[in-house]
Design brief:
mainly beta; Rieske Iron-sulfur Protein; 4-stranded antiparallel β-sheet; about 5% helix; about 40% strand; elongated; binds FE2/S2 (inorganic) cluster
Length: about 120
């Protein structure tokens, strides 16, 4: 069975909140988007910069603040790869291969949030 790590009381992550937690050696970004909990690697697959201040989009995406790569919070799929800044972003995008964002399973038990210790993908 999948191993999960207990994080903190669910009440500490109200709607719209986000937190970075350590799961083993990784840093995982946990977000509450309109009551739905998501957990993704905090490091952008493009150049490993932190995603924690990324903008969440209406279609459940997150946009990296650095070169605006966009990822699906549910699946980790790439929606856009390094489009920013115009022209230069494309060049930077070519430096590293397009990679999905690792996503983690979550659950609520005993009023606490839990996250899987390994990414789903
Ligand atoms: S580091 Fe995130 S898009 Fe470049």
């Amino acid at each position: 069975m999948e191993k999960m790590q207990k994080l903190f009381p669910l009440s500490e992550l109200p709607e719209g909140a986000r937190r970075v937690v350590e799961v083993g050696l990784r840093r995982v970004l946990v977000l509450n988007v309109e009551g739905e909990i998501f957990a993704v690697e905090n490091s952008c697959p493009h150049m490993r910069f932190p995603l924690k201040d990324g903008r969440v989009t209406e279609d459940c995406g997150i946009i990296c603040p650095f070169h605006h790569s966009a990822f699906d919070l549910k699946t980790g799929d790439v929606k856009e790869w390094s489009p920013w800044p115009p022209g230069i972003g494309r060049v930077l995008g070519a430096i590293s291969r397009r990679k999905a964002l690792p996503v983690y399973d979550t659950k609520v038990e005993d009023d606490h949030l839990w996250v899987s210790t390994q990414p789903r993908r």
